[in-house]
Amino acid sequence: MAILAINGGEKALRKDYTSLFHWPIVTDEDIAAVVDVLKAGSMSGSEISKVFEKEYAAWNGTKYALSTANGTAGLSAAFWACGIGAGDEVIAPTMTYWASCAAVIRLGAAINFADIDEELNIDPDDIEHRIGPRTKAIIVVNYGAQPAEWGKIRAIADRYGLKIIEDNSHAQGALYKGRMCGTFGDIACASLMSGKSLAIGEGGMITTDNRELYERCVAYGFYERTGVASNYNKADAQITDPYLQKFRGLPIGGVKYRINQTCSAMGRVQLKHYPERMAEIDKAMNYYCDLIEDIPGVKPIRPARGSGTTKGGWYAAKGLFSEEFAARVSPAKFVAALNAEGLFSWIGANPALHLHPLFHEMDFFNQGKPTVIAFGQRDVRQGKGALPQVESILPRVFNIPWFKHFDKEAIEEYAAAFHKVAENIDEIK
Ligand SMILES: *Cc1c(COP(=O)(O)O)cnc(C)c1O
Fold first, then answer.
1. Does domain 28-268 have CATH number 3.40.640.10?
2. Closest residue to atom 6 of ligand 1, CA basis
3. Distance between Cα 111 and ligand 1 center (Å)
4. Which residues line ligand 1 (CB under 6 A)?
5. Per residue in 247-282, pLDDT tens?
6. What does the domain layout of the chain look like in residue ranges?
7. What is the pTM of this model?
8. CB-based burial of residue 304 (10 Å sphere; 0-12 exposed, 13-18 middle, 19+ buried)?
9. 89-93 vs 110-114, strand pairing mode
């Protein structure tokens, strides 16, 4: 029987595999594109960004795309565009990065957090009973690049006339039943910051087929696109709505969400190579998951093969230990043993937001009461125990190495290291 590295045995992984994980892949092509922007002094313009938007929209399959300074900015514009305002409610998954929903507080709205399912996405069966008279929208995240249950969620939204804001920050290029994520919400936003699957520096992209929502986003944070010329733009109005036109020249949100064009230039290059890089990641990650999936109680989170649903670039790939597995060995100790073998992993994902004081106590408008109950909305705050699934699931989530290259031998070594620990669970103290 092999001795675990955590008990002084030999490490299962001894080679330097860092090059398999390096991301984004930056070549001379990216560098030349960025240097061109710098030499032209056009960092603050929009011409390159507009080309990037056209290419992104064509690739993603939406009528409109609008680049943003970051993903958070895009979501902030989208919330206002969808008509969320003081006293309204939105439904959002409790387990996500804060930017998926935090900016609705700034609009005076409250968040009714829904539980997650075992794929770490919003539980489609925990949405409908949360809908009240002031509910305006559902925020849906394709969490960890796993497409949400779009069929069920869209049916609920349509039945109640709710808008869906899709946070596609994890799943650029992922498919749900053959259709690309970023097209399921009435409006979708993606972060394109350097850690994400499609990584362009700092940036984001709003996508939609809805002209009205597109124009409202432009009016909210892109004064330079409202039809008033400045040093940095020609007067090319992208707003046709007469009400929004009234405010031409100034942003309705009082914010400026324009992206730096060095990022758009890099984005164009990254996007061009993305399908091919995504295909290699998909092959590598599925191979690794195939190799560890036969371990009882170990379940990589991924779409069923042949279902037409895919994970795109596999951002933040995760797996779930079963309850029986977690009863046998502490998940934290199990991953500590993996780490000792040289396989980097950790337990958990984003902490549950429904427990955070920001969504309970914060008085953004200085009214002497928490913003989430300050505008006549129901009190939808939830404490410990209210969302039992996230509390049960989160301590059993483990992180899977994010292979960017299909190196068969290396992947097999990683899987062997996992098997070594799994086969010697009783040695873990
Ligand atoms: C990264 C991320 C964002 C925010 O994007 P930034 O570009 O970092 O502002 C929003 N939602 C989710 C789910 C994210 O992971």
1. yes
2. 71
3. 18
4. 70-72, 96-97, 99-100, 141, 167, 169-170, 191, 193, 204
5. 999 999 999 999 999 999 999 999 999 999 999 999
6. 5-25+273-349+391-427, 28-268
7. 0.97
8. exposed
9. parallel
Query: Atom 11 in ligand 1: which residue has the minimum CA distance?
Result: 100
**Quick one: pLDDT at residue 1?**
65
Nearest atom in ligand 1 to the alpha carbon of residue 70 is: 7
According to DSSP, the residues that pair with 92 across neighbouring strands are: 113
Q: What value, to the nearest 5°, has the Cα angle with vertex 245 and ends 240 and 251? A: 115
76 Cα: distance to centroid of ligand 1 (angstroms): 11
Q: Which of 100, 143, 192 to mutate to test the pocket of ligand 1 (most atoms within 8 A of CB)?
A: 100
Q: In what order do the strands lie in the sheet with 163-167?
A: 64-68, 204-208, 187-191, 163-167, 135-141, 89-93, 110-114
Q: Is the pLDDT score of 231 beyond 90?
A: no
Residue-wise pLDDT tens digits, 287-320: 999 999 999 999 999 999 999 999 999 999 999 9
Averaged over 353-380, what is the pLDDT? 96
Range 5-25+273-349+391-427 has CATH code 2.102.10.10: no
